[in-house]
Design goal:
The chain is an alpha+beta fold. It has one domain: Glutamine Phosphoribosylpyrophosphate, subunit 1, domain 1 (4-Layer Sandwich), CATH 3.60.20. Helices cover 34% and strands 27% of the residues. The chain is built from six helices and twelve strands. The strands form three sheets. It has a five-stranded antiparallel beta sheet, covered by helices on one side. The protein has a five-stranded antiparallel beta sheet with strand order 5-6-7-8-9, covered by helices on one side. Strand 8 and strand 9 form a beta hairpin. The longest helix has 22 residues. 39% of the residues are buried. Its main location: cytoplasm. Keywords: Cytoplasm, Nucleus, Proteasome. One of its GO terms (biological process) is proteasome-mediated ubiquitin-dependent protein catabolic process.
Length: 246
């Protein structure tokens, strides 16, 4: 039927506007909406609240940062909503996607970790935690949490551990950096340009901060400041960054 309208436009331009009685009612001019326009107007549920998360590895240290915006589609509701959560001193997880699902999933993770500590009498290792998160997401695959995790931690020997996955737990590890959020192209581009191996904690903080703030400048759904955590062998450094508020 869309082709009929196009043909009608060509005929109209060639011979002038015909009378309405010349055509059946279903071929008379009516507003046409292309299916591609409908699909562009529908926002993904993963973009509903907006997020930008980067995890980056250094020399015996690892950092994770997230933006602070919480919005409802294009309306900004608050600017004090970090998406990186502490599991223990050597392990953090960032949860992008739908804000309510991220909070619910974080509560489940805290419960699982507390039960692990009671049973094992030690903190969970980052690699073990990554597989646990993947398993928890996959068991809900037919009604998944609308969240995409990024895990950053330090192993017992000081080796950085970075891991990311989708909403049903398909894991991917990295030696350099991992990103999630509503503008992954911008974040990936900045990280690929600025990351280099064996960075010290302060240089790692500066690099991740610049990547995050520059990446969200091209994303209307994320930004409005950031929170960055740098995990080293003996301490965790947390800093709040000021960003563009527009």
């Amino acid at each position: 039927q869309y082709k009929h309208y196009k043909q009608f436009d060509i005929f109209e331009n060639a011979v002038g506007r015909p009378s309405s009685s010349s055509f059946p009612k279903h071929l008379q001019r009516t507003p046409v909406v292309c299916p591609c326009q409908i699909s562009q107007a529908i926002m993904s549920i993963f973009e509903y609240n907006g997020a930008a998360i980067i995890a980056m590895a250094g020399k015996e240290c690892v950092a994770i940062g997230s933006d602070l915006r919480f919005g409802v589609q294009l309306q900004t509701m608050t600017t004090d909503c970090p998406k990186a959560y502490k599991i223990h001193d050597k392990l953090y997880i960032g949860l992008s996607g739908l804000g309510t699902d991220a909070q619910s999933f974080h509560q489940q993770l805290v419960f699982r970790h507390n039960m692990y500590k009671l049973r094992e009498e030690r903190n969970i290792k980052p690699t073990t935690f990554g597989h646990m998160v993947s398993s928890m997401l996959y068991e809900k695959r037919f009604g998944p949490y609308f969240t995409a995790p990024v895990i950053a931690g330090l192993e017992e020997d000081g080796t950085p551990y970075l891991c990311g996955m989708d909403s049903i737990g398909a894991m991917e590890t990295a030696k350099d950096f991992m990103v999630q959020g509503t503008a992954p192209e911008s974040l990936y581009g900045m990280c690929e340009s600025m990351w280099r191996p064996d960075m010290e904690p302060e240089e790692l903080f500066e690099t991740l901060s610049q990547c995050l703030l520059s990446g969200v400048d091209r994303d209307a759904l994320a930004g409005w400041g950031a929170m960055v955590h740098v995990i080293t062998k003996d301490k965790v450094i947390s800093r709040t960054l000021k960003g563009r508020m527009d």
